[in-house]
Amino acid sequence: MSQRTERIDELLRQEIGRALERELADPGIGFVTVTDVETSADLAHARVWVSVIGSEEQRRETLAALRRAMPYVRHSLNSKIRLRRIPELDVRLDDSVERGTRVLHLLNELEAGRDPDAAAAPLESLPTPVPRLPHEGDAPDLEVPRPPSPGGRPRPRKRTGSKPGAKTARGSARRSSR
Q1: Smallest Cα–Cα separation from 12: which of 66, 48, 41?
Q2: What is the CATH number for 8?
Q3: pLDDT tens digits for 129-144?
Q4: Are 123 and 98 in contact (CB under 8 A)?
Q5: Same domain, 7 and 24
């Protein structure tokens, strides 16, 4: 992937995220985050990867509402991004958050001494924070010392140039040799 394509992907990700946040008032669109955009080499098509928080049904409804809204978003991008042609936008669900939640759930089950295969899959798409209990063999919490604050006044800045007409050692030496 070229640097230009990467820059365009990042710009599209930011602008599509802003458009979803500020310009769309569709009640069918839930809590959505644009995680990535992948444009084709000819910039004719772009995959928009989104993460949606909510139940499976809410994710499906949000994805359908986003697909209906993409022509409007594409049209609004035309005034914000200077490209010859704004790519066709194809919305895809990014399930990396759910996979990460599943891994955290499995680790919690193993840490608690339970069989992770017997545990049901979590119903939420993001983990609920839980305090970690201390276990035998854990390293003690160490306080990290803070660096001392710099004392005294800051040093004055060095001047890199001189004012016109100001006398310098080099300038006065030239004048005296004439």
Answers
A1: 48
A2: 3.30.300.20
A3: 556 666 677 777 666 5
A4: no
A5: yes
